[in-house]
## 1
Amino acid sequence: MSTRLIDVKGLRISFAGKEVVHGIDFSIAPGEKLALVGESGSGKTITALSLLKLVQNANVGGSAVFESRDGEVDLLSLPERALRGIRGQDISMIFQEPMAALNPLFSIGDQISEVLQLKRALAPVLAWQEAIKLLADTGIAEPERRARSFPHQLSGGQRQRAMIAMALACSPKLLLADEPTTALDVTVRGQILDLLASLQEKTGMAVLMITHDLNLVRRFADRVAVMENGYIVEQGRVEDVFASPQHAYTRKLMDSTPARDVLEAAHDTSLAPVTTAKNLRVSYPVSLPGVKGWFRKSAFVAVEDASFDIPAGQTLGVIGESGSGKSSLALAVLGLHPHLGQLQITGKTWSGNSAGNKALRKAIQVVFQDPFSSLSPRMTVEAIVGEGLQVHQPMLDAAQRQSRVLQALGDVGMTDAQFPGLLQRYPHEFSGGQRQRLAIARALMVEPQLLVLDEPTSALDVTIQKQILTLLQRLQRERGLSYLLITHDLDVIRAMAHRVMVMKDGTVLESGLLAQIVNHPVHPYTRTLMAAHA
């Protein structure tokens, strides 16, 4: 038997004559876990997709010799009909975002059953039973009930487990895992990694893991290949590469952990906090089952009895998994969802009168997780960044607005010299990190006192993440800004927060100074969070 399950040589990928992957070589042995590491645009995902010819309009050259169940084949030269027999059977794939990859119109069980019926020719009843067993194998509670659920009815971790169950339905020899844990909370991320490792050990399949998370690589992989701009610049055993990285790009990736550079909290109790909340409660109406639902509604409590304050120039980091109530808390603070309890922003409270809230909206702004979806694709940079001035300072003329916009863009490190025609460009013309800088500039235009940062770096590569956090730290020092930072990344908390609040199931489990929570956690859940980042 071959010592190599797949042997890729001279892989080249081009679009319309422009080459994006430049003759790379790598191999994976049976049962081995190889991590393909690099930033967005380095060619990781397109490399994996090209092995199964899933990239449209791409010209692919080189060879990818694979030891299939029917013998040795070159994947890149196989006709479509033959390759269709390998996809999902010999080689399966887990995609980065399960909500986009799963069909919203069919239940999870139906989607897994379809694979079993097509690939293993199982009868519908047997396929359904096997689908339930696969869900149970991936650790989903109540697999019979969850098999009848639709993707939107599952959490992110459950959707990813369902996708893993679908990928493993035919016991593949090679699993391509494209950022399978990026969209997940740290505790769920650890569970998915442990699940993949146990299933890999149990079935003996090989795994090609595509990621930019070096902590994940260290924890999961046997070997690592580092990609930059379509080239593999370094590869070897994980312990060797991490102990002694040879290439400058590898060293750059490993040096991308966010550094703490904030003004430490001054213990001045005479200063009024920018934000104060006491016994905050946030709930959503839900329908009761059966006939009762015709006449009255119940309530789902997303946040219960939360109390905190944010002093001027300081950051409160709120950490917890999906569904913990972090985003609902942010919506209440932003005045975008009704709440009970006391909540004051700069000494004022939200009212039911939008005109009365206008001044308060100037004091608090928000930077969202995904800069691409939070910026209008139809508006120019000048219109996006200057929009707040038209609402809060309508007396400014066009020239004054443009001057203020250019100043704000310069403050976040974007100038017309770097980007000719900057003001007339559109969001799609910028990278993810540049778009997030635009979002920050937009938030700063009205000179707020509090910024709500909702996972501001989780959609970015590690090196870009470090740049954005450095920018936020500088702005806080220079302007005395306060931040409400919502994240599930403890490295971001360590770099940015002065105080930390840990949430789970809508409840604040513990809160306190950063050193206290990180170094001496009291609650078992907090200790689990800290251990997951170790």
## 2
Amino acid sequence: MVNNILFNKNNTVVKGLLILFLIVGLCGCGPTTSTVKKAPSSIVKVRGQHQVAPEVMVATSHQLATDAGIKMLENGGNAVDATVASAFVLGVVEPMMAGIGGGGSMTVWEKATEEAKHFEFYASAGADSGKAGPATPDSLLTPEQEVAVPGTVAGLLTAHKQYGELPRSEVLKPAIETAKNGFIVHPLLARTILEEKDKLHIDSAAANLFYPGGEPLRAGEKLVQPELASTLEKIANKGQEGFYQGIIAERLVDRLEKGDSPMTLNDLKSYKPRTRSPLLGDFKGYTILAPPPPMAGMEVIETLNLLEKYDLSSMGLPAENPRALSLLTDAIRTSRADRYKWNGDPRGVGVPAAAIASDDYAEERRRWVGGAVPDSLPAGNPWQMVSSGKQVTINNITGYPFTSFEAPETNSEQMDTSRDESLDNQTTHLSIVDGEGNAVTLTFTMGQYFGSGVFSKGTFYNTAARNFDDSPANKWGPYRTPRSSTAPTMVLEDSRVRLVVGSPGSGRIPPAIDQMILYTLEYGIDPLEAIYMPRIYPFTNSNTVRVEDGFPTAPLKRLSDRGYELEVLAPYDLYFGGVHMVYVTEDGQLIGVADPRRNGTVSGY
């Protein structure tokens, strides 16, 4: 097994860069440089030694989760078995980011059948239409009212039942053992324990766990979670019924009633994940598999479509070339405006995702790329591109269809995206490729750090109800799912996986994914360099662009001269995401890379 190989670890110059990187990380700031930063040796990258390609690759945000995925593959499991095992472990070691009280989505590619499926299991409104829900986030008065029906358990087990090869008890075993035996608290968990002190004291059981004796758990100490281990054992033994019915469900509803939550036992029992075809895009001969609504795949694909007409590779990297950075900024801003205007739950209301992902729509919206820089960029009208109910097919892969609903009446005012722009990196992601060429990309979340703070039977519960608003496609209603910026994405070439990618980071997720696709496939640079390139994040409601320190002067000056207001953040800032990806070279080698902004890990053999 090749495991956690450090790039150029014996190079004296790189060691010096690592020391500099550590200093910058400790102080939380760094000087503005005139050249693009090069990768220090803290990058975690796995590649075949002596040109022998690894057959499998697992990239996650924690070593124990990566190890769990590798173990499933060694024991004869496939990419879905590895994903489910890794995800349950992440819920144990990253309780602030994800877990069985949250939700998410995953895209699966089955090589043998050349079939692509998307499993959407974001936390959703309940089944009881008689119970009132939130009209807007401002109407939520208690932490309990922030909680939507959790989808992680149902989503993971549904995918495992359809594609997995190992027994359910085996894929949950690593998570159960980790919760029962404990693990060493890592710095990011320790930091969030301190930052979220008030939230962790909403429930006494959580306070006793994370503030034993009144003192916060610190990095290097052990966290043991026996109650969570017991809950996971029930799921291993009984499947979804063990979580959505019986004592775990009853305790949760009793707990939520204390804060006037509308959730009922029937809501939990009735929860079902949604299985859909992925949203398809075609970028310069590559097939993009992105999540359909209410996830953010439409933004990923539209950004690429807007840039397809430009010969970016001849211009130079956006991190170095003024025009390339300017085009990238405009494209991201334009596609973000469209997603915020039109995205939502496609059940019962029109969401023009396939139209937004079309070449014709990109042609119409491209007028904003390289043009004027308005203070607030308006969304477009994709409805003129809608082909009612038509199925999308690219390279014999069946994708998400055009909506069969009429255009909803919407507010003409620009949507407020300030909440999305200010959130931290409160999600987690993993990417996996197995030896048969199957692949999974999974993003899941609690919403905010430690979710709502509501704690029951060893786990926290989400804040997904905060994501609803009063727009037609995103309003509260029976079984409805709020829109999300998560976007687990794959790129295929000739029915062969080339890139498996995703990230946490709220609204920064689609831009981070697009930048990785462009750097690795359009520019052809090593994934190691790609993941270290400084990133950008343009706002839609203002002309502000947040840029990661590391850009030279000329590209930034061009943005400023065009009318953008630049806000520079520290290099390798957690704000800009935590990409975990697997890149497959043209000759079939697997390269796994974990983002230094998140300190994740990759392993392969």
